[in-house]
Every structure is written in structure tokens, then in C-alpha cells.
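In response to the reviewer comment on reproducibility (Comment 2.3), we provide here a single inverse folding case reported in full, input and output, so that an independent group could reproduce the run without further information from us. The C-alpha cells appear first.
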């Protein structure tokens, strides 16, 4: 290869690397805005204004949610999750369901943690309880859900998260003696997209006394703020499009009304339509405004949380197909049950 060609190649490589660092979510938001400008230019300003106003209104909740996650990371509180997997199996299922619903783990961060537990012989029932409850709710999710869908909905979703864990945990206990559960773990090479807990041991609640923990707090604040900002921007753009371009009668036909049908439809659509747990909240708010039933809204967010691609891959990466199928079965059944129960009390 000639020197001139090598020089030309070296100029191209950095540009390619830069393209790989572009966030797909921001690209998607840009494409949506460009499409609106080209196809329906009269709607461009209203959509941008709607998105900006929604972000401003939600900003204080996002800031508080980000601070909560950063505090938990800086103090090392995540390390206390392991205590839920100690003791009698029934106790483990109970604690795993509760801790899973409150822990701030992301889907891929759970993989190496759970792999170690399974390899050490932790009952699959406790792991199933944690897996089912963990994606549904966490402190930031509760704050954002309460701000958009109401405190009652957020509390009900939290209760449902614990219920998911109990359903899956005790349901798995009833069938763990079958051959499918005798060796649930695949061969596993540790990986992840969120990193693992930075600190181990007893949490240090006054983290600001240690320089390293302050650095972790600052870095976590920035990374999570950018994470939520990009997803909430996309979500509000999609909500604006849905409200302006999708006739309300279409939503009502598919997800409106009373009875079991809209609840089942919400559960079956939840997984494929779920972009991200935080982004789903504004979308559900928009669909409720368009005529979506309360039961369908609950089954949609429950099924979407557990069966969306990141959460499902976290399970598929570790366990054999029959255990994974059991996980999906509990997810769909629990989502429909949660939607029906919420429709009765909402």
C-alpha cells in the first residue's frame, strides 16, 4: 500500500470511529424531526414546543431520579442486594422479590451478578423472583411514573413488581424438581453494558468524605442524566406524533374499553412496542389521553418491562431455553393478571 493510500486510510478511520459513537437514540430523534419538517412542516414547531415543554416539566423529577441513582452508586448500597440471597429458600424468594422491585440495577448489569449466584448454587426460584421484579420498578422509574401517570399508578406498579417476583419465585419452587431446572445455567462469559457495582462491603452513606466516591457520584450523575435526556426526548417526540397523527378511535378500538380483551392486547403489545422503561411512561400517558384503558396501560408497562429486549436478553444469556420459556410465561400471565386487578380498582 502506498504512503498516500495509508494517509488517506488514516483519515477515514477516525471518521468511521466517530460515527460509531453517535447515539442511535439521538439519530432517531433527528430523523423524526427531519421527517416532520419535510412531510408536515406546519407541525414542526408545535411538536418541538410540545417536546420542550414536557422536558421542562419533567426536568425536576429527572434531576431527583438521577441524584438517587448516583447516591446509591457512590455509597455502594448496591452491594447489599446480595443479602437477599441468603437463608431459607422461602425467605430468599420474599426478599428477592422486594429487593428486585427497589434496586437500581439495569438489565445487563444483573447478568454477572446473577451468573455468580447461580454458579454458587443459589436456588433458581430466588433468581427468578429477582429477575421478574427487577426490570419493572426502581427509584428513578417510580419518580418518573408518578410524575406522568400519577402516584396511584406508580404505587400499583411497584406492588405488581413485588407480586411478579412472588409469582415467579414460588411458581418456580413448585416445578424446580423437574429435569429442566436441574441445570439451568448456560456456559457464561461475563459481559455487560452498564458496568458493575464500584464498591463492595458495607455502604458508606456519607460518601462525600471520600474523593473516589465523589468522582463516582459525579460520573454517574452525568451518564444517567444523558441517558434519561436522550430517551425522554425521543419519548416526548413520539408522544407528540401519536397525539397529533394517530386518531383516538384507533387506540380506543385496540386498547380501549372494558374487560379482558384490551388487557390481553396491552400485554401482547408491551414487549414489541417497548423502547425503554423510562421512555414508555410518556407514551402510555399519551395513549391514556387517546382512550387506552387503565387495565391495558398496566398490562402494557408490566409486560414491556419484563419482556423487552434488554431484560429478556439478560435472562436468555444465562439460562437454558426451558427456563427462559418459563420466565416469559410468568411475565405474560403476571402482566394480564396485574392489568385485570388494576382495572378493577383504578
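Designed residues, in position order:
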Amino acid at each position: 500500500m502506498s504512503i498516500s493510500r495509508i494517509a488517506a486510510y488514516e483519515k477515514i478511520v477516525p471518521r468511521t470511529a466517530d460515527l460509531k459513537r453517535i447515539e442511535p437514540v439521538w439519530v432517531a430523534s433527528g430523523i423524526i424531526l427531519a421527517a416532520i419538517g419535510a412531510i408536515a412542516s406546519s407541525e414542526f414547531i408545535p411538536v418541538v414546543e410540545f417536546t420542550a415543554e414536557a422536558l421542562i416539566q419533567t426536568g425536576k423529577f429527572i434531576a431527583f431520579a438521577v441524584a438517587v441513582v448516583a447516591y446509591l452508586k457512590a455509597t455502594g448500597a448496591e452491594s447489599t442486594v446480595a443479602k437477599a440471597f441468603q437463608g431459607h429458600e422461602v425467605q430468599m424468594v420474599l426478599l428477592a422479590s422486594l429487593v428486585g422491585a427497589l434496586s437500581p440495577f439495569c438489565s445487563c448489569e444483573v447478568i454477572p451478578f446473577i451468573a455468580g449466584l447461580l454458579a454458587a448454587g443459589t436456588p433458581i426460584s430466588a433468581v427468578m423472583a429477582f429477575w421478574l421484579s427487577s426490570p419493572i420498578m426502581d427509584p428513578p422509574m417510580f419518580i418518573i411514573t408518578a410524575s406522568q401517570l400519577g402516584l396511584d399508578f406508580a404505587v400499583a406498579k411497584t406492588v405488581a413488581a413485588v407480586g411478579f417476583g412472588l409469582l415467579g419465585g414460588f411458581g418456580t419452587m413448585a416445578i424446580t424438581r423437574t429435569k429442566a431446572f436441574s441445570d439451568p445455567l448456560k456456559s457464561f462469559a461475563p459481559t455487560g453494558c452498564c458496568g458493575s457495582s464500584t464498591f463492595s462491603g458495607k455502604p458508606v452513606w456519607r460518601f462525600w468524605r471520600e474523593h473516589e466516591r465523589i468522582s463516582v457520584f459525579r460520573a454517574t450523575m452525568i451518564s444517567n442524566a444523558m441517558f434519561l435526556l436522550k430517551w425522554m426526548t425521543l419519548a416526548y417526540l413520539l408522544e407528540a406524533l401519536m397525539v397529533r397523527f394517530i386518531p383516538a378511535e384507533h387506540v380506543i378500538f385496540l386498547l380501549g374499553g372494558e374487560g379482558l380483551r384490551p388487557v390481553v392486547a396491552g400485554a401482547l403489545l408491551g414487549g414489541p412496542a417497548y423502547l425503554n422503561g423510562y421512555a414508555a411512561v410518556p407514551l402510555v400517558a399519551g395513549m391514556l389521553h387517546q382512550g387506552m384503558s387503565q387495565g391495558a396501560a398496566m398490562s402494557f408497562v408490566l409486560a414491556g418491562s419484563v419482556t423487552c429486549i434488554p431484560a429478556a436478553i439478560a435472562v436468555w444469556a444465562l439460562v437454558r431455553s426451558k427456563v427462559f420459556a418459563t420466565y416469559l410465561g410468568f411475565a405474560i400471565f403476571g402482566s394480564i393478571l396485574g392489568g385485570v386487578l388494576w382495572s378493577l380498582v383504578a
